[in-house]
Amino acid sequence: MNNLLETPIEYLKGVGPQRGELLRKELQIFKYSDLLNLYPNRYIDRTRYYKINQLVDSASEVQIIGKIIHIKTVEFGKGKKRLSATFVDETGQMELVWFQGIKWIRENVKINVPYVLFGKINSFNGTFSMAHPEMELLEEHKASLRSAMQPIYPSTEKLNSKGISNKVVIKMMQQLFVETHVLFAETLPTYLVEELQLLPKHLAMFNIHFPKSQELLSKAQFRLKFEELFFIQLQLISKNLIRKHKIKGHPFDKVGDYFSTMYTHYLPFELTNAQKKVIKEIRNDLGSNAQMNRLLQGDVGSGKTIVALMSMLIALDNGFQACLMAPTEILAAQHFNGILELAKPLNINIKLLTGSTKSSERKIIHQELEEGRLHIIIGTHALLEDKVKFHNLGLAIIDEQHRFGVEQRSKLWHKNTIPPHILVMTATPIPRTLAMSLYGDLDISVIDELPPGRKPILTVHRYDSNRLKVWKFIRDEIEKGRQIYIVYPLIQESEKMDYKDLMDGYESISRDFPLPKYAVSIVHGQMKPSDKDEEMRRFSEGKTNIMVATTVIEVGVNVPNASVMIIESAERFGLSQLHQLRGRVGRGAEQSYCILMTGNKLSNESKTRLETMCKTNDGFEIAEVDLKLRGPGDIMGTQQSGVLNLQIADLIKDKDILQLARYHAIQLLKKDPGMEKPEHQKLREVFIALGKKKNIWNYIS
Ligand SMILES: Nc1ncnc2c1ncn2[C@@H]1O[C@H](COP(=O)(O)OP(=O)(O)OP(=O)(O)O)[C@@H](O)[C@H]1O
Which residue numbers delimit the Helicase ATP-binding domain (predicted)? Predict the structure, then answer.
């Protein structure tokens, strides 16, 4: 059976080399099995026939039985022609119109013979018309293998224009089922099909293409969505299990002085329960024989830095080194300053390595690192350079992981003979469903509470016309000793215009908030790193009241005294970016504010984003809205994974099915990690074949 499904598509009756080439190029359909996995993206009820006097403007596609009583060629425009026919049934008449294939239509269309018409209606001044309708003689229509609901397949303009219409795809599918008598072998274990009352595979495949009823269609969709997500979860979870069993990690079973001294004497604040919970989860991972691969999710300002430090101290207590890699120099410097401050009493050697580290300093760092005299190193991708050699790297922490490509992570991975334990931190909350798919091969820890005393940031939307009032508010806040961020979009595609906006903004703010009463810093991506650091330092030391910046400060900058975030042209930012920027304030005990400035013209989507920001501070809730607005494909980091090449499931609409699939995949692998039991044989075959076809995650090179 399977080799029949491997037949190249051009051998299917009615396809041939030309159509085969088109299907390959346009829909990546190479062989029979690819065509079978081309699932319809919607269905049309073909049991419903309209009378002409029942037509209404909003009816999208309709079916009508009637006859053509008259047909003529009409000239319009410069020598352009169209074919116009009068189509009637017992209740009225309408016009049919063709702009192409006029000759063929004239020669083949029959007058006064009952036809079934199918297509989209247009209406103009109460009269109805249909352009390029699908037409079938009534007796043929009744004889054809037509299911109650006609599938509408994903198609392309090019396919249509080259004669591969939806109707042709349906005929191919019918031919495929005839040629292969496709009796699909059941791929899921019988106990699972029975427990979940899933439609058997072959019935699901038949009813997804030729649904016999709405109920059977829904069951077929559920079964195939479950199966697709189930295999993905099997791959992700088994990768996790394989890693746990195969890749030994250094067991950090010693709770030493660094960790306990810090924990008992030098914490600047009481840890939140969430921070304690996560540190415990990390501790357990590090103490086990397996290599840790954990994703730490924590909303902006939730206190991930202290968790990272405590994890690194466990590595140091067990005689190993630790590193933290961040995506930007500003974030690396921020982590370095934060960790240096926190760890000051412990007298450990911590250094920062970025692209702008002077070569003299770099040499010392390389030497200390290789000799094991440098305990913790924090940096950017500079850590990945071959010259950077560790004495014995035990723990690698990667911040904002989705910005690092897979190859960069694996480079860090291979700095040692035994790979280090890995802790991935992301401040961009990823909706649970996406996290289960994108990071399904990692264990996940969530810091789901903010430090005590934090007041939710008050967020408001103001138009540019309210600027004077906003400026007055800023003066009042500065009077109280607070500091202000004013952020401009500097987005690649219109860099020149945005850059001008930023500089104009900086000029006008320096004018409106003049020295000596006020002092303004500026930071953007085109400045020299040393200048950026200097400006950031002046602001964080309170030497300037206002920081004019671009999104380069979006992640990780921590100035607890800054209480106002003004975001200019806020309608141009995505939700997660707005949330990250807002998270730069609200990090102290003072009431903080976020003011979203926009022009008057706003798209509906922009309005939804602004309303969401004003409504909630919860990063996870915001991420859900963001996922709905932008779809999983746009969320940072998804491009690297194959998990989103879904054929039929939808990560947003099918999150319940995803959770069910993940649950059963975990249960199955708990009982039979190698899928060796007799009832899992077929499953195992499909699992291995799938693993070869689309490797869900090349996370471990
Ligand atoms: N348990 C706590 N109690 C009080 N303050 C805390 C606590 N944990 C962290 N903080 C403080 O909250 C601020 C934010 O901490 P941190 O920078 O670690 O957050 P974060 O999760 O890294 O935020 P971001 O993702 O925005 O970088 C810091 O000033 C830190 O000192």
Answer: 285-447
